Sequence to fold (853 residues):
Amino acid sequence: MRLTRFVLTIVVLLVATCQKQPGVQPGLRVVSLVPSVTEIAYAVGAGKTLVGNTNQCDFPEAAKSVYKVGDFMSPDLERIVALRPGLVCLTLPIHRQLLDKLNEMKIPVYASRPADIRAVFREIDTVARLLGRGASGESLVAAMRRRLDSVPAFADTPRVYIEISGTPLMTAGGGTFINELLEMAGGRNVFESSVQEYPVVDPEAVLKADPQVILLLHPDMRAPDVARRIGWGGISAVRQGRVYDQLDDDLFFRPGPRIVEGVGLLARLLHPGR
Amino acid sequence: MTHRNPVPVWVGLILLFVSAAALSVAVGPGGFAGTRLSAVMDLRLLRLALGITAGGVLAVVGASLQGLLQNPLADPFTMGVASGAALGASLTVVLGRSAGVFAPLGGFAGALVTMLVVYALARVRGRVTVTGLVLAGVIMSFLFSSLVMLVMILGRRTLGEAVYMMMGHLGAVFTGTTAWLFGAVAVLAVAGCGWLFSLSRSLDVMSSGEEAAETLGVDTQRVTKTVFVVSSLLVGMVVSFTGAISFVGLVVPHLVRMLFGPAHRRVLPGSFLAGAAILLLSDVLARNVVPGGLPLSIVTALVGVPFFIYLLRSRL
Amino acid sequence: MNAVELSGLAFGYGKRLLFDGFDLDVAAGEFLGVIGPNGAGKSTLLKLAAGLLRPGRGSVRIAGTELRAIGRAEAARTIGVVLQENPFAFDYTVSDVVMMGRNPHLGRFQSPGKQDRKVVTEALEFVDALFLRDERINAISAGERQRVVLARALAQEPQILLLDEATSHLDIAHQQMIACILVELNRQGRTIVLLSHDLNLAALYCSRILLLDKGRAAACDVPERVITGELIRSVYGVEPIVTRHPETGRPQVMLPVATGNLG
Fold:
């Protein structure tokens, strides 16, 4: 009996140490204050490590039932600390003050700030490794790259107007994420030259740019509402009925694994039938 | 009753108004691009109408409130109505209902609610004092501004939009229905300004204090309540289309008083013309000077602040 | 008929009553002086008589009619009030300010006409402020302001004048000028009620003096019977030296020398 147990223990230990893909770091407790990082965690199979996330972390379904430490914009430090986290993922500059406090308390922090698609790939890698799922991270990135590469080069690059808000009229400028996704999908943002990230635009400027496609990224506006706007009837996109509404903006604004879906969706909208 | 003959000043003011209007229609980011000319013109004319109404109303209300409150620092937003309108409008955005007429209606509803709350707070035994209105208005203004931020956060909108709504703009997009709604607003705005104008003499007398005015035969309660209600409704209507454009209501009346003296029967109509002209000119600058445009309130502030500093120093 | 009749007046700020069953009759053409310590209720009494405050109980009658029944404009055509503080938030000219006195005579959409301008000019002349007509109200001296505000009250063409401290911040020259104006107005038949800290001014010119003490009339009689050492001491706590004015024999008070010993 004692021998069997001894042999079994050795075998278990050998198996444990020989695993090429180690299990998740035992006992790592992660709090994610960033919805995109939450998505990454689940995508690389490390969803179990999450002990807390925000009200805005709503994908995948499992993320919704994780303990909520507050709002993305203002998470509760007490709740975070009460969870005894081994790692807190946040983003700058929104969580700047929180970062300082966590540093004081010597709680390990990961600061997310991906500016473009390449940075998203790097982040997926980093987060995956931090959560002990490095290999999954690599394969996820590889899969994402393959999907992006499979987007064909299109002959035409339609002019696109992205509308973020209707009152006042707000669009996305050239330095934004969605702008990059749009370019990948073979489109050209008519306001890409804007210095501001999310500038307010003059309706006349939209008329002058004459976009061929209009993307409505705020849920209260529907395509027929745009068509009813005085003076907008002559815009190419309106004339040809290429105004798209009810789009899931998480696909375009969350720098996480689903950006490739975002690119795919854009490509299908911009180049129908291809 | 001033030495200076006001007629050439009126002529100058009217000319300023007309040139501002012409400039506003002639110059814009849309240029004169070929077949779209009439569409661009439609937009410009709507913008012109909006600018005249907003500039005129804000200046007239500012002048009236300065007279009523006997305070040269009063402006159309002292009563808190603009914050209420912003709250109403932001609620429609967050509830996903801001298309078409709902945003301006929501804004107006917010303004109406604010007016009623401020009035109720300021009422003591059926009487409303000027000081009570100011205090209640300032408190409500703070409360509703904070609520706007809260609503935007909870509704997952960017704070940038909330800030913009509080900063003011003339770039509203109109559909057929909202254009008609605005038409009604413009007519009501002119009527409201006319009503305030009819109270000119009472406002003059009230500038010596409520008690003195009572002894001179002014029904100060009626004047206070009327000016408060009419001003709140006017500001509510305008702000639900344009957001809170700052400085016009504060600075223009002083400018006009410098030209015509403090008598309200000149200051009110003068403020309407000057307010409209200055707002249109600021808008032209805001849209054209920098590609991409500047927020309107920044231009009005850049124009208004130095002037106000000059005013302040000349009084000291 | 009395110009002003206060009967059974009750009024208080907050819970405590200042006036509780107060009566006063002011005869037409009278020059009544109202004196009393701070807090005695002089200003409150004036505001009650002018209709600026509403009594909890009792009535205010002007020329026999209840003040409440007289319209605001009618009241303003009958009673002219000069308050203690006269702030002007905006820079109206002197003639603008005096023209505001014509407000009760003008209809809602009526503009001032020739008659109104004539009244304004006469009022300014009367107070010797015509030369100031185009000056800004905030650019003139305190004494001149006092006269302008008086002119505004006169422009109302009132039968009754209520003045709260017409001379407190003025130098003796201007005090004398105001006194002359008031005497002349009274001579013309107007009823004048003057609230004053200046016991001598009241004693010299008023036909009767009301001595108020914490909302009660300690005395209401001719100056000789009110300006007495005893009465003044009982109300003010200070016993003055009472003399006679060499020109008219009216009582005048002088304060005893202060010894530096507090009481």
Remarks:
- Strands of chain B lie at 123-124, 127-128.
- Residues 128 and 204 of chain B are 19 Å apart (CA to CA).
- Residues 37-68 of chain B form the longest helix (32 residues).
- The first strand of chain B starts at residue 123 and ends at 124.
